[in-house]
Amino acid sequence: MKQRYILCLLLAGTLIYYGAPRMSIFAEGLQGTFAISWLVLATCVVAGNFAALLYTPKGISKGKKLKSKPVRKVRSRSFG
Question: pTM to 2 decimals?
């Protein structure tokens, strides 16, 4: 899963790197609205992937297994 987060961060960073200089956030009308909303959404993508990368739970290594409680065997008795 961490490789996917890193890949998404790299792709989003590449899109921002090439897209941001070509957009004018001070433009009038639809062009300015699109530029601002695109940059806000791209920032949310980067922030979400970065947070997911930082806060993923640590995986259990292959050599270690969780210790479970020993199962107590109960014998059934039948009379008769």
Answer: 0.65
